[in-house]
């Protein structure tokens, strides 16, 4: 039971760190700051729903796709771990990730285009980018129904947290402040470095087991 609880906490913290809802909320406000509250809620809901379906797809079918391509579980863990480590290292050193700070197009004047930002850049790559997909793949890679369920439930909870962070983002950012955001981002970066290192170690261990 304790192992299951520890795994669930690890999965949730991994997703929380890689998505970084605080940094994502800052981007969301930058993209939607001039919009009405109703429009912001629509964009927020569409973005988290899209991200949920993307991650669910890779949780359920990702392992089968990689097996079809001849990609092994250790390769998934090692490559995913390296990717997560690099993202975490940049966050820890205060570098602005292109995932959480994308270039914003100036051509956002039409209502449909404004809603489309829920898909890109919010859902992809901010919420369901390569790092999030790699994290989901690594935690559900064994194909166990329990691991897949834990991964999907954890991501669902985080999507709910992210939605409310988007909706009440102005209040949250005002309370935390710029310095608070920097501290949280660096803390999330450290957590990602640890998770990435652990995934690489597990992948190398699995390779030794094969040979």
Would you kindly provide a written description of the structure presented here, covering whatever features stand out?
With 211 residues, the chain is mainly α. It has one domain (2-210). It is built from 9 helices and no strands. It has helices at residues 2-19, 21-32, 37-68, 73-92, 111-116, 118-127, 130-140, 145-167, 169-210. The longest helix is centred in the last third of the chain and has 42 residues, at 169-210. It is globular.
Report the uncertain regions. Answer: 104-110
What percentage of residues falls in helices of 4 or more residues? over 70%
Mean pLDDT: 81
Contiguous helical run count: 9
Tally of separate domains: 1
Overall shape: globular
Radius of gyration based on Cα positions: 17 Å
Instruction: Report on the biggest sheet.
Output: none
Strand residue content: under 5%
Question: What are its keywords?
Answer:
single chain; 211 residues; mainly alpha; 9 helices; globular
How do the helices and strands line up, and which of them pair or pack?
Blueprint: H1 2-19, H2 21-32, H3 37-68, H4 73-92, H5 111-116, H6 118-127, H7 130-140, H8 145-167, H9 169-210
Helix pairs in contact: 1-7, 1-8, 1-9, 2-8, 2-9, 3-6, 3-7, 3-8, 4-7, 4-9
Please summarize what this structure is:
The chain is mainly α and 211 residues long.
């Amino acid at each position: 039971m304790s192992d299951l609880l520890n795994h669930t906490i690890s999965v949730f913290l991994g997703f929380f760190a890689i998505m970084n809802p605080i940094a994502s909320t800052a981007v969301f406000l930058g993209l939607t700051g001039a919009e009405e509250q109703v429009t912001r809620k629509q964009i927020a809901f569409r973005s988290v729903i899209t991200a949920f379906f993307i991650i669910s797809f890779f949780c359920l079918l990702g392992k089968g796709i990689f097996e079809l391509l001849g990609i092994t579980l250790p390769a998934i863990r090692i490559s995913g771990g390296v990717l997560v480590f690099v993202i975490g290292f940049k966050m820890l050193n205060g570098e602005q990730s292109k995932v959480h700070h994308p270039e914003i197009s100036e051509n956002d004047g039409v209502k449909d285009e404004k809603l489309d930002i829920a898909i890109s850049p919010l859902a992809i790559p901010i919420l369901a980018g390569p790092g999030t997909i790699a994290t989901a793949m690594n935690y559900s890679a064994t194909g166990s129904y329990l691991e897949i369920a834990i991964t999907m439930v954890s991501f669902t909870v985080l999507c709910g947290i992210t939605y409310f962070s988007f909706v009440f983002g102005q209040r949250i950012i005002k309370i935390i402040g710029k310095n608070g955001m920097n501290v949280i981002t660096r803390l999330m970066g450290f957590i990602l470095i640890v998770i990435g290192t652990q995934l690489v170690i597990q992948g190398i261990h699995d390779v030794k087991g094969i040979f």
